[in-house]
Write a structure and sequence with these properties.
This protein is an alpha+beta fold. The protein is built from 18 helices and 24 strands. Strand 9, helix 10 and strand 10 (250-255) form a beta-alpha-beta unit.
Length: 504
């Protein structure tokens, strides 16, 4: 696996500073809030360093590291064939949802398969600031111990505004606090994203969200089960109302619900907590709430279908034969079928279960193929349609396909706009409006220097395009990618990519 000389130098420097302070790797790991094995990876140059991680290291070692205040870039030497196999990591959206759902439990919650990514770190920083004790125990596992009383006065506002997950605190925290404020969030810049679905659904349960200029004011009235028609089938809104309903004794019926993978994850977790949930994966979910959850709960998060799709797209971009293992196949079948109609060759292996015992997985092998554009537009729908977060990854096969493809991103105002950055790499894309993108395929991609747009999936699509473009590209300020993907440069390098991490 190609290594970055920069990460090796940083790791060596950290080791020297640690030893000068007389700290063992274990002692250093404890102060850093990580594992000894993670420290070993850092010091051997096998760890991708984010700005936040460097800041933490700097604080513990009491030495300002040179790259702290600068951006992290990727130098990508494209045109390399990918080969072998790569395992799909744990779900980003499942991770943040489970961290919020753990707020329902008065006892200890042990979560396995939590993604070690920036988005998760932000959520953990918020949780710790209000009194939750979180301890990473081994790799991707952690223990979650709530306080006897939550302190919203000490809420880490800086971390809260960086993640849209903060709105999902409304449902679970309303069971502990009669009233509290949370700030508006940023996350990806994808136009205005209404919380109307959250508000209307939670109001039916007795939880009110008032919107001020900079904050949401949540108040708990008389809680009651309800029959709810969702204003829209948004994933986070469904998760919020599931968590709101879980601790209201009686039957709550949620109609026009999303059955997406992260919603199912919350349902599976609630069942572990003793909450009966009917209709999982359908558009009508029934929650039989309980008065209290107070037990030691252990749960395994499943794998991320969006990451599986990312690797599928990377294999297509590089004309590679690549096996992606542990793919949540129920959430990829339609995407794969669309690709098959375009001429993409692939093989789906036998199904098996994720560690949660519920999610179906399969290994998918992608083969080099000649593609043709679909006659119909490609657009997303609530599950079981094409996943909204998978939609941008169709830009890569569309660029390679003969003919014209229309991608209709009807939810987000800006995401299609960001994809036009690929024109700088030789793509032929025409923006019809902020939602519709025409792609005339068959053009060869060329290297370029591009700054990551403020949106996770378009940033990753650009990175994938750079993998397929012969020559050296620079992708600048990759924080947005680190929000959603764990050690992505090193993992892509392990299957044949050539990516250097630049921390200058």
């Amino acid at each position: 696996m190609p290594k970055s000389s920069n990460t090796e130098q940083i790791g060596s420097f950290i080791k020297t500073l640690r030893e000068k302070r007389g700290l063992s790797q274990e002692e250093f790991a404890k102060q850093l809030g990580t594992s000894q094995s993670a420290v070993a990876r850092m010091e051997s140059g096998k760890q991708n360093f984010t700005t936040e991680l460097l800041e933490k290291v700097s604080g513990v070692l009491e030495h300002k590291l040179v790259s702290i205040n600068n951006t992290i870039d990727f130098e990508i030497h494209g045109g390399k064939k990918l080969s072998g196999s790569i395992r799909t990591n744990y779900s980003k959206n499942g991770s943040v949802g489970l961290l919020c759902a753990a707020l329902l439990n008065k006892g200890k919650t042990i979560l396995h398969g939590i993604a070690r990514i920036e988005e998760v770190y932000r959520v953990i920083e918020i949780l710790e600031s209000i009194g939750v004790k979180i301890t990473w125990t081994n790799g991707n596992s952690l223990e979650f111990v709530p306080p006897k009383k939550f302190s919203m006065r000490t809420l880490n506002r800086e971390s809260a505004i960086k993640t849209r997950t903060i709105i999902m605190f409304a449902g679970p925290l309303a069971h502990h606090l009669e009233k509290f404020y949370i700030p508006h969030a940023q996350g990806c810049t994808l136009g205005k994203r209404s919380i109307a679905a959250h508000r209307y659904a939670l109001e039916s349960l007795g939880i009110t969200i008032d919107v001020t200029q900079k904050e949401y004011f949540i108040t708990r009235g008389a809680l009651k089960p309800a029959e709810i028609v969702m204003y829209e089938a948004g994933d986070t809104a469904i998760e919020n109302v599931l968590m709101g309903a879980a601790l209201i004794p009686g039957k709550t019926v949620i109609k026009f619900a999303s059955g997406n993978y992260m919603v199912q994850e919350i349902c599976f977790f609630l069942e572990k907590c003793g909450v009966k949930v009917e209709g999982i994966g359908t558009s009508t979910i029934t929650v039989h709430g309980v008065a209290e959850i107070n037990d030691t709960i252990e749960y395994h998060n499943s794998e991320d279908p969006i990451e599986s799709m990312m690797f599928i797209s990377a294999a297509i971009a590089t004309d590679s034969t690549l096996t992606i293992t542990h793919c949540p196949i129920d959430f990829l079948e339609l995407e794969l079928y669309k690709l098959r109609i375009m001429g993409q060759k692939y093989k789906i292996g036998k199904r098996y279960l994720s560690a949660n015992g519920r999610t179906h997985l399969a290994d998918v092998t992608i083969y080099p193929s000649k593609l043709i554009a679909l006659e119909d537009k490609i657009h997303a729908n609530p599950y079981p349609g094409i996943n909204m977060d998978n939609l941008p990854f169709f830009a890569i096969p569309a660029v390679k396909a003969k003919g014209q493809t229309l991608i209709h991103d009807w939810v987000y105002e800006n995401r299609a706009i960001y994809l036009t950055e690929l024109n700088r790499m030789g793509a032929d894309m025409t923006l019809a409006d902020q939602h519709r993108l025409y792609i005339d395929g068959g053009t060869a991609l060329k290297p370029a220097q591009i700054v990551c747009p403020p949106a996770l999936r378009p940033s990753m699509v650009i990175m994938i395009a750079m993998l397929g473009a012969h020559g050296t590209s620079i992708l600048r300020n990759v924080y947005m990618i680190n929000r959603g993907y764990e050690e992505i440069a090193a993992r892509l390098n392990s299957i044949g990519a050539d990516i250097k991490v630049i921390t200058s």
